[in-house]
Specification:
Helices cover 66% and strands 12% of the residues. With 218 residues, the chain is mainly alpha-helical. The protein has a three-stranded antiparallel sheet with strand order 1-3-2. Strands 5-4-6 form a three-stranded antiparallel sheet. The longest helix has 35 residues. About 7% of the residues have low confidence. Bound molecules: zinc ion. Zinc ion binds next to loops. Zinc ion (ZN) binds next to loops.
Length: 218
């Protein structure tokens, strides 16, 4: 009798442990899901940003921007239907633009084989989040470069050629009669403090842009 009781107790403890284990697993799963939560982009604001539009045009042309904007507004779309909607003659013609966008991760595709046919059907969708990060990187990179050049500029005033922008310090400018060695251009005096001021206001401007970009991501 006593042994039976004891073994029952053991069973109960084991059962409790099992429940606890399951609960822990559930917790872990929940955490993972939370971490994978997708960021939401205010795509209207994003597509109004001049830098964002310019970047997409540089990558895939005006037509590529049109494809990208259309995919953002309509969501995932099958390739042939997409070509038809955007008035491309064939899916082939639109693929060139899709691949250019795809090379920069601005769009992705899903391929599906239907009814055991030999070919795949492609479904394309836009990745506006990637564009936000690209623009953010651009701003941050320029801030970094500007700060670096501010350090270099702190030294003293200098002269700059009005044709090729080559820099001369005061002694070099004097030796060359205030003419550029490359092209004979006139050397103009540049006050270091003015340059620093300009660069600082550029940094302030970029920081404002970065802040505005953060508002696009919800
Ligand atoms: Zn020059």
């Amino acid at each position: 009798m006593a042994t039976k009781k004891a073994s029952n107790k053991v069973k109960k403890v084991k059962a409790k442990a099992k429940v606890k284990k399951v609960k822990t697993l559930k917790k872990v799963k929940k955490k993972v899901v939370k971490r994978e939560k997708k960021i939401v982009i205010d795509t209207n604001k994003l597509l109004k940003l001049e830098e964002a539009r310019k970047y997409v045009i540089d990558v895939a042309g005006e037509k590529g921007l049109e494809v990208f904007e259309f995919l953002i507004s309509k969501g995932e779309m099958e390739e042939n239907l997409l070509a038809k909607k955007l008035k491309f003659e064939k899916a082939n013609a639109i693929r060139k633009f899709l691949y250019r966008l795809y090379n920069k991760n601005l769009v992705s595709y899903r391929k599906v084989r239907k009814n055991n046919k030999a070919w795949y059907t492609y479904f394309w969708s836009a990745n506006p989040g990637k564009l936000v990060f690209i623009i953010k990187d651009m701003y941050e990179d320029e801030i970094k470069q500007t700060k670096k050049s501010m350090e270099l500029n702190k030294a003293e005033d200098f002269y700059v050629c009005d044709i090729c922008n080559r820099r001369y310090d005061v002694n070099e400018a004097l030796q060359n009669d205030f003419r550029c060695r490359n092209d004979g251009g006139v050397l103009t005096h540049v006050e270091s403090s003015k340059v620093l001021e300009d660069k600082q206001s550029r940094i302030d401007f970029l920081n404002k842009k970065l802040h505005a970009l953060d508002q696009i991501v919800k």
